[in-house]
């Protein structure tokens, strides 16, 4: 009986989580004239919406490229800064270390919407509106606290004897970090990279506020401004198709690397 209830609970959670994505995928493969039908599967199956998304008038390919640039650069910069900061907090002894750690975590508590107006005024003054850096720098400030927190926990649970043994063998602290600690911390770094990339890829508010040029907008903003392939048709089907295109790569990456992601998250939480 307990097993049945367990599977029933898991099935209910799966249905609850996957139902919106399932309906989005089904709607994406309906014909534009069948968009409001309620059949569980598209009949007939159609690729019209998928083809419409990539028409030159829509410019969705450029938006995907912009999302890839913003999410990719944000992830790389977050890892470079986050790994160094987390290692320092986990291993080095310096004054006010706990205060610095508390301040880093406190920055993640600010609601993003409250920072938009001052950021918008600042970026307007320095000419950053409609640039990649106007989306990357704010995303970096939101991603770094989580990355530092996750990586600090990961570095703390690694034995300090590993570095000490390497230093006895002649390595400097920097060489011990680069040659010994960093390879062993790969699961935590990989998990942080995946989480940061997904968060930056799905970011919407900052990209919507900092960019008003259609050639610089990211995929999430482009979907919200979809007018359809011809400007006057119902954009529901093409929006669903664009949503599938944006979501599927992330789902595939998470499914492929789910073991590494779970290993990285649990390793950082176990002493």
Automatic annotation (TrEMBL):
It holds the Pfam family BPD_transp_1. Residues 64-257 form the ABC transmembrane type-1 domain. This is Multiple sugar transport system permease protein. GO terms for cellular component: plasma membrane. GO terms for biological process: transmembrane transport. The chain crosses the membrane at residues 7-25, 64-87, 99-123, 135-155, 176-201, 236-257. It is found in: Cell membrane. Belongs to the binding-protein-dependent transport system permease family. InterPro entries: BP-dep_ABC_trans_perm (IPR050901), MetI-like (IPR000515), MetI-like_sf (IPR035906). Keywords: Cell membrane, Membrane, Sugar transport, Transmembrane, Transmembrane helix, Transport. It is a multi-pass membrane protein.
